[in-house]
Specification:
The chain is mainly alpha-helical. It has helices at residues 22-41, 62-90, 95-116, 119-123, 128-142, 147-153, 156-168, 173-204, 209-234, 238-265, 270-280, 284-294, 296-332, 342-349, 353-401, 412-436, and strands at residues 3-5, 18-20. Strands 1-2 form a two-stranded antiparallel sheet.
Amino acid sequence: MSVSVALGTGRSDEPVRVVRGDWWSVGIGLLLVLAVASAYGLGIPLDVFQTSVPKPWPKTPLGLQIAHHWAAYVATWLVLLLLTVLPAVRSGVSLGQYALGFTVLFAAAWGVLILGSQQILKQDGLEYPFWALILGVVAGNLLRIPSSIESATAQSELFIKISIVLLGANLPFSIVAKSGPRAFVEAAIIVAVGFAVSQVLGRWLKLDDRYLAVLGAGASVCGVSAAIAVGNTVRAKPRQIGYVVSLVVVYGLILIFVLPALVHGFHLSALKAGAWIGGSELADASGAAAAQMVGDAAVKAFSLVKLSRDVLISLVCLIFAVIATAVWDRKAGAGDANHPSLGALVWDRFPKFVIAFIVASILSTWWQSAYGKAFATDFTNNLNALRTWLFTLTFLSIGLNTRFRDLRDVSGKAIAVFTVTVLVNVVVGGLLAAALF
């Protein structure tokens, strides 16, 4: 979605500070796609990226890898730092603070990738997403995280959106066109069922209408971004948005481990698994982590369904803008002068990085058809390596930003509504994935 936020637990009634980030992910993602393709065409392929991801060891000695490829690690750090520093600075972070925080986060990600490439651990399924999340959660809840590192972890939404654009370059457009309608049907049903459940249960428990809108968005659409977008649209209290953000982060983390376990327990194919995760997980980042634990094929299916849910936030915001203006504001005696036009609202909430995902898919399909297998292999390997780094940075950030204590101020009624909605969506998402995919 088109927002990132630094509101902590959202306890105060100060306006929620929102920073638009979608266009940054569009520009950075497509720039990387074009750079990798152009470098190959000029005869100077950027293979430094694919050598920056540790290979399984001890089959390939770890010390030898580090000695041979240290320059690749440094180059990847520098490229990602330079590409993400401007969005961070524009969001209010100082240049030095972000550079220091990103460097520490990158070093931690490098350690995670080394740990996740150990052969015995990999055979047991303990790869880098698992270690990034576990180590991040432990550190985030037991240690005091310096503000410089928090300035880097706050960019997790930017990291994952760039990753999704790069994923588009690895997904032939024929697959997007073929599976897109099924993905959209699943997403639409999930969103509709989620809002229906949250509204019925929430009204029975006598929760505030605006609060219910935010709870339904966080549990059914696209997590933190949806909660903020809908919350701002209906003018919910900032502390209510903060409560839902806390629920999304904690429940999303739990589902990262629960959904892959269910997938393996039911012996589902990677396609069905990815579609289930895409329909059930709460946010792009946590969903990508869960899908990555199943495999790359699951990540592709997940992306199609989850991106469809992301797109629906513009429609959801439009519907709730009309309801808030015509019903809730009128009941409260509030004017509607500050509400944006409906057309502006739809475009404002539309996730722009979805456009870049499709553009990257079209360009990649065209180039690979025109230039052959050698180009396709080099192009894919380099972008996949960059995506692995961005995924790892994202998963570490999720863990470091998760604070279980943030749930202590959320009311039992709100937790009940959110929990039931999430559980229903998991069940419905599984059934739809099995039926449609």
